[in-house]
């Protein structure tokens, strides 16, 4: 079962890399970009057919390793 | 003093740290990350700088889940001493032994230069060899040294006098100019600057010597 974990910096945490991307977009002529936030997408291939179990396991993985919950939030989505 | 210096794949300041401890009189053992226990009688664990596991996922995140890291957390839990420098500081925040997180430098650049620090507290075995407010010069070499804590944690750190070192001229965007922080029991120190790179005249400065010497005096092996 495929599961996707999106990891993003929490709101309020300054994202220097996103800011750099925003400036680069500006220099390319994209003038209406108010903000850029950069995160990570992690795709997991889990050895289960149970969507609820897959979601629970991926959530535990996110809590323990995939995200640093001091500065990052995460969202788990079972893709099937 | 018995010091154990941890070696992760990608550590590159482990030997420098070992030399700094040895010169202060320590018996030093290098400990591979796959070992699941520290040598008997370890007084202090040195978690060195470098790029453990290629900085994959987040700096220090994979190393913090290594078998030896569980032993480091247990050692700290027993009141043992731990010094984490640079990537070692990142590892210690990832284990939860120290609060906050280290993010990409605000200017996005890798910064490698000597920086001036002020010693904010001398109430620790790491900093007792300095004078309160003393200005020292120690090199930094990092891309992810931007220390971030929330306001409540910052207030706690200040109230408990746990900010060990601050930058005179903040190079990386760290909250409140913080360069080094102590654990609640003052026996775990994480810092981005490299005191082990300031222990020999050939390094260009020797302001790190007082840290290792003070530790050696405080941690006389039984």
Q: Describe it for me?
A:
The complex is a heterodimer of chains A (80) and B (222). Chain A is of the alpha+beta class and 80 residues long. In chain A, 35% of the residues lie in helices and 26% in strands. Chain A has one domain: 2-Layer Sandwich (Mth169, Chain: A), CATH 3.30.1280. Chain A has helices spanning 16-27, 51-66; strands at residues 2-9, 40-45, 72-78. In chain A, strands 2-1-3 form a three-stranded antiparallel β-sheet, covered by helices on one side. Chain B is α/β, with parallel strands linked by helices. Chain B has helices at 14-23, 67-77, 87-95, 151-159, 209-218; strands at 2-7, 27-32, 44-47, 81-85, 101-103, 111-119, 135-142, 146-148, 163-167, 178-182, 188-191. Chain B has a nine-stranded mixed β-sheet with strand order 2-1-3-4-11-10-9-6-7, with helices on both faces. The mean pLDDT of chain B is 97.
CATH architecture of chain B: 3-Layer(aba) Sandwich
Strand content of chain B: 25-35%
The CATH class of chain A turns out to be: Alpha Beta
Count of alpha and pi helical runs of chain B? 5
Structural class of chain B: alpha/beta
Cα gyration radius of chain B (Å): 15 Å
Q: Which stretches of chain B are poorly predicted, pLDDT < 50 over at least 5 residues?
A: none
Number of helices of chain A: 2
CATH homologous group name of chain A: Phosphoribosylformylglycinamidine synthase subunit PurS
Keywords (chain B): ATP-binding, Cytoplasm, Glutamine amidotransferase, Hydrolase, Ligase, Nucleotide-binding, Purine biosynthesis
EC number (chain B): 6.3.5.3, 3.5.1.2
Pathway (chain B): Purine metabolism; IMP biosynthesis via de novo pathway; 5-amino-1-(5-phospho-D-ribosyl)imidazole from N(2)-formyl-N(1)-(5-phospho-D-ribosyl)glycinamide: step 1/2
InterPro entries (chain B): Class_I_gatase-like, PRibForGlyAmidine_synth_PurQ
């Amino acid at each position: 079962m495929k599961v996707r974990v999106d990891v993003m910096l929490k709101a309020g945490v300054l994202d220097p890399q996103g800011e750099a991307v925003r400036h680069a977009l500006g220099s390319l002529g994209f003038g209406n970009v108010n903000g850029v936030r950069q995160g990570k997408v992690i795709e997991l291939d889990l050895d289960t057919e149970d969507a609820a179990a897959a979601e629970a396991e991926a959530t535990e993985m996110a809590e323990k390793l995939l995200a640093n919950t001091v500065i990052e939030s995460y969202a788990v989505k079972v893709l099937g | 003093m018995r010091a154990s210096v941890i070696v992760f794949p990608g550590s590159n300041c482990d030997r420098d740290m070992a030399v700094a401890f040895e010169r202060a009189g320590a018996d030093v053992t290098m400990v591979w990350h796959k070992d699941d226990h520290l040598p008997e009688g370890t007084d202090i664990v040195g978690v060195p700088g470098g790029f453990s596991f290629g900085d994959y996922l987040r700096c220090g995140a994979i190393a913090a889940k290594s078998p030896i890291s569980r032993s480091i957390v247990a050692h700290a839990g027993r009141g043992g001493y731990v010094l984490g420098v640079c990537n070692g500081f990142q590892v210690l925040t990832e284990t939860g032994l120290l609060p906050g997180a280290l993010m990409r430098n605000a200017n996005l650049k890798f910064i490698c230069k000597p920086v001036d620090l002020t010693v904010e507290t001398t109430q620790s075995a790491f900093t007792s060899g300095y004078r309160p407010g003393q200005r020292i010069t120690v090199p930094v070499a990092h891309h992810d040294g931007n220390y971030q804590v929330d306001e409540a944690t910052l207030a706690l750190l200040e109230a408990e006098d746990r900010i060990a070192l601050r930058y005179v001229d903040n190079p990386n965007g760290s909250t409140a100019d913080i360069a080094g922080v102590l654990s609640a029991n003052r026996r775990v120190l994480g810092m981005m600057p490299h005191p082990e790179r300031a222990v020999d005249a050939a390094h260009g400065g020797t302001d790190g010597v007082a840290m290792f010497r003070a530790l050696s005096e405080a941690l006389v092996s039984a």
